Each structure stands twice: as structure tokens, then as C-alpha cells.
Amino acid sequence: MEIKGKLKQINPVIERQEFKSRKIWVTTEDNPQYPQTIELEVSGKSLDIFEGVSIDAPVVCHVNLRGREWAGTDGITKVFNTIQCWRVEADKATPAAGFDAPALPTGDLPF
User: Fold this and answer.
1) Which of 48, 59, 77, 99 is most buried, judging by how many CB atoms fall within 10 Å of its CB?
2) In the predicted model, what is the mean pLDDT of residues 43-50?
3) CA-closest candidate to residue 39, choices 7, 73, 76
4) What is the reported pTM?
5) Which residues 6+ apart lie within 8 Å of 27 measured at CB?
6) How far apart are CA 65 and CA 48, in angstroms?
């Protein structure tokens, strides 16, 4: 499954014993009048896949939907869902501010 949008925020890594994860926010623009902010989770080998991706960069996130039941002490069972991102496609090359292309040498050409 894919989610297309713009990278809105990369949250800090959360550590729980040996498990590490982080939340990523992506804003979808399927309906520009009502943009949606979707929270994705990355963990394990995918923890750093958003490194180098600029905020507001267009992204295509490949995700799996996860769900689990949890029975509370009050006898009520609840379901928790997670959108697990395992791959991102983005333009990670962002030019530095004020970057200019090098000037070409002037003078006689060798051909």
C-alpha cells in the first residue's frame, strides 16, 4: 500500500528497552481543500529511511497496516492500529541555499 504526500515532521526516536521507533507525519493532498495529516511509524532496519529527506518534500511511503487487540483490566477489549512504513521514495538531494553552478573557463577551447 502507498501513501503519497509531503513530509511534514520527523519526530525523535523513542526507545523502549531494546525496541526503537519514531513517528513520521505526512500530509496528503488528495483533496487540497481538506489536507490530511497521517502519522506513520518506522522501526527496526527502517528507522533511518527518512534521514536526508527535507520537510515539505514530496514522498511516496510504502506501508503495511497493523492491528492488535488489547484486553483491559476492566474487561473491555480495544483494537490499536499502526501504519508501519518500510520504504520511502523521495528526492533526497536538496541543493544548499545560495548555491551557484561553477563558472566555465573562458578563453581558447581545445577543439
Assistant:
1) 59
2) 93
3) 7
4) 0.75
5) 5, 6, 8, 35, 36, 37, 38
6) 20
Quote the CA–CA distance of 93 and 97 in Å, as a whole number. 12
Tens digit of each residue's pLDDT (9 = 90 or more) over 73-97? 999 999 999 999 999 998 665 444 4
From the list 37, 29, 31, the residue with the least C-alpha distance to 83 is 37
Residue range 26-35, pLDDT digits in tens: 999 888 899 9
- Backbone phi, then psi, for 21, in 5-degree steps? -150, 170
Dist. CA 91–CA 52, nearest whole Å:
9
